Amino acid sequence: MSLIHPSIKKCLKALFLKPLNGFPPMISFIFLSCASPEPQYEYAYISNPFGIVDTVVTIAAVGDMMFARNVAARIAAHGYDAPLGSVSQYLAEFDITTGNLECPVSDLGTAIDKKYVFRAGPRIIPELAKSGFDAVCVANNHAFDYGLPCFLNSLERLRNFGIEPVGGGKNLEEALKPALLERNGLIIGVLGFNYTRTNYIGEDRPACAPAEYWPRVFRAIRIAKDSCDILLVHIHWGVEYAPFPTDSQMILGRAMIDSGANVVLGHHPYRWQGVEFYRGGIIAYSLGNFVFDQNDIANNVSGILEITFDRKQLSGVRITPVELLTHPREAHFAGGAEWQIFEGILEESCIIFPTEIETTDAKIILRPIE
């Protein structure tokens, strides 16, 4: 029988406290004089005077963000807040926001001899910070488009605004280190890898973390997991424009979960691919284009992948659809036809996985099929 008076329970619910075994954290001491005999109490030693303990961490993850070429032209016409302005406040509400930065952000360097080269003006970085981005993956095939000085300057500029670049560094050791972010008493680690056979320079030179040698990937994941409670792993991989991952990707994605990753975040194919629940973790094989300038419909619908952990356990996965069709080169929340297009792509991409999809008015909810 609970020792908490019903009227007190009602007050606790109003303060959004959830009783644990009949006793809410931090206020158990109120009932010590009423308990008998020798009841067991749960304590949470925190600094706030009301004893409110938030064990939930919310994560928002998005795919490729490219602020050069035609997106840069859009910025020139409408301002630096144009690409992210419509979703900025929403993204900033999550405990952790992360994505793939598909271009260096700097005013240094000269374009290398390559068909497609990207570099964004550094004034986009404050917009990323305003949108709540805590960590961005820089391990991709466009990281070195304007040379190594540009790449290193981009890393420095991001850090100056409190955004951790992952998957790249002044040397390979730094590129393989996780960003460590503390939220609600938990440490969230973020790693990044590039699996496009491009842009790895050397162990003692600027580098993108390569994923071609799998044992090194697994070792980096195991080391990172020793320093954090929840581990997110970005990986730039796959076949451009393909609706499904390759067999090799699925083997590697699951092996990364087996090595200690909780979440695998894929990007590079420019379109959304399936989401797989695996051994208590989740693999999003491609998050598609979040801000880009391509023309195909499938390249212009994606979503914000919203992942919730309660303590260290995955407790919820949702998607808020986003589109670049009605406002090209600008991320906007999808509705109507654009929502239906994304939902159809999502359902098709998940057909090879035991993933249940439920659509509500505001979200798409994903669950594992038991």
Strand content: 25-35%
Taking the sheet with the most strands, its summary is: 10 strands, mixed
Strand-pairing-aware structural class: alpha/beta
| Shape summary | globular
Give the terminus-to-terminus CA distance: 34 Å
The helix/strand order is HEHHEHEHEEHEEEHEHEEEEEEEHEE
C-alpha-based Rg, rounded? 22 Å
Q: If helices are DSSP runs of H or I spanning 4 or more residues, what is the number of helices?
A: 9
Mean pLDDT: 89
Low-confidence stretches: 1-50
Count the E strands: 18
Helix content: 10-25%
Task: Give your account of this protein's structure.
The chain has 370 residues and is of the alpha/beta class. The protein is 23% helix and 26% strand. The protein contains nine helices and 18 strands. It has helices at 6-14, 69-78, 88-92, 125-130, 148-160, 172-175, 214-225, 247-259, 336-349, and strands spanning 56-65, 96-101, 133-137, 164-166, 168-169, 179-183, 186-194, 207-208, 230-236, 263-267, 275-278, 281-284, 289-291, 301-310, 313-323, 332-333, 355-359, 364-368. The strands form three sheets. Strands 1, 2, 3, 4, 13, 14, 15, 16, 17 and 18 form a ten-stranded mixed sheet that branches. Strands 6-7-9-10-12-11 form a six-stranded mixed sheet, with helices on one face. The longest helix is centred in the last third of the chain and has 14 residues, at 336-349. The protein is globular and about 50 Å long.
